[in-house]
Amino acid sequence: MNTPALKDWPLWEVFVRSKQGLEHKHCGSLHAADAAQALHMARDVYTRRQEGVSIWVVPSAAITASNPDDKGELFDPAADKIYRHPTFYEIPEEVGHM
Amino acid sequence: MSKAPVEYLLHLADNAVVLGQRDAEWCGHGPILEEDLALANVSLDLIGQARLLYQLAAARMGNGATEDALAYFRDDKDFLNYTLVELPNHGALVGYAAADRDYATTIVRNFLYSALMVLVWDALQKSPDSDLAAIAAKSLKEARYHLHHAADWLVKFGDGTEESHARAQAALDHLFRYTEEFWTPSAVEDAAIASGAAVDVRTLRAAWDAIVADTLAEATLKRPEVRGYIPEGKHGRHSEHLSYLLGEMQGLARAHPGATW
């Protein structure tokens, strides 16, 4: 199943919404020649067991991703800022449920 | 309440099971992983349609008839499918066992057949035979997807590279003559039409021609001229290819009758 065609076919990220009202969730990627075909293939690859009612496909090339090497500077500084979590604060009785 | 004759149900079921078996030959050998799954899905839809039709036929036949007996224990001359659906997944005049499968042949065949079946199932979902109408309503959705899938590829092949165009045209030239069989009713179809529960396929010809013309125009492919030869698969007179196909499909069930797993 290895074919040179895959080199020419762009990669698409597939998002499937499981039912009305829920958000689309990323479920994988596939190769396809164009957007319409990517939708068809996503239907065949990712919704065979009734997983979805709606599909989005996005060219993988259109996604700008953070660099894993930057993980430290991007995300570690948030680690000691526990006051950013609502659970850090004590809510006065009279405020009630928030 | 008119009911479709059993032989007509078998004609519909045999078409579906034989094409399902042909398409299934690609399972694990698809040109790419995604397409391997897509064609397996088409194949499973067709086998599902065949099961429903065989079950209905078996129930109406009585005398211990079962869907398995109808699929696995009838011989080639008892099968009432179109010759088109039993042809191998490669062009004419190629040695049977050694030939490479040709995806254009598979796609063109699925296109020509599903273009007919979207019309047949659409008509049959209004059949006074309510069991058949229910099967038709379910099958129509599947056939629409099969047509979409095949037409999409046909346009990509026809309007693609020089080689993909040539191979799509060759497959069309090879297979188109076999569609002539659609338009001349067999005795089984005549009886079914008379029952009021079936569709007269001849009335669907203009709509089928339009689907074919639209897709071929988009694919920049030429509709071949065909005349003279009319295949007779649905009369039980088949090409040599059906018995090989049935040999593979029925072998296990016949070697171990009644086996379960």
TrEMBL record, chain A:
Superkingdom of origin organism: Bacteria
InterPro entries linked to this entry: PaaB, PaaB_sf
Alphabetical list of Pfam families matching this protein: PaaB
Protein name: 1,2-phenylacetyl-CoA epoxidase subunit PaaB
The organism of origin for this protein: Thauera mechernichensis
